[in-house]
Hints:
With about 130 residues, the chain is mostly helical. The protein has helices at about 30-35, 55-60, 70-85, 90-95, 100-125. Keywords: Membrane, Transmembrane, Transmembrane helix.
Amino acid sequence: xxxxxxxxxxxxxxxxxxxxxxxxxNPNTAMLxxxxxxxxxxxxxxxFDPGMAMLGTCEEAGGNALSPKDIARARFAEIKERWRLxxxxxxxxxxxxxxxxxxxxxxxxxxxxxxxxxxxxxxxxV
Length: 126
């Protein structure tokens, strides 16, 4: 097998497809990780993220594996409940520009102009 460079290609930067719907029966931790990796939770780009240990392995190793009901609740919290009260929609950070910085810079600019005008009026004796 030959590659164009000395470094073989890695497959971790591939887009991750979303898993089964949130209301799918018998959810598992792989579906929860798939929700997060696919960007469905809205706080991560849609790229596969290799991890040292899959979600839920600590619970299983401790003898307290997550039930499908717990996993379904976690999937709901990651996907829908997290964004319920937020003005941003899921995936907002990936497809749009956040106006906060522009508003902040605009506010500073307007405040600077107002302050400069006030100083000018005071010195001019108006």
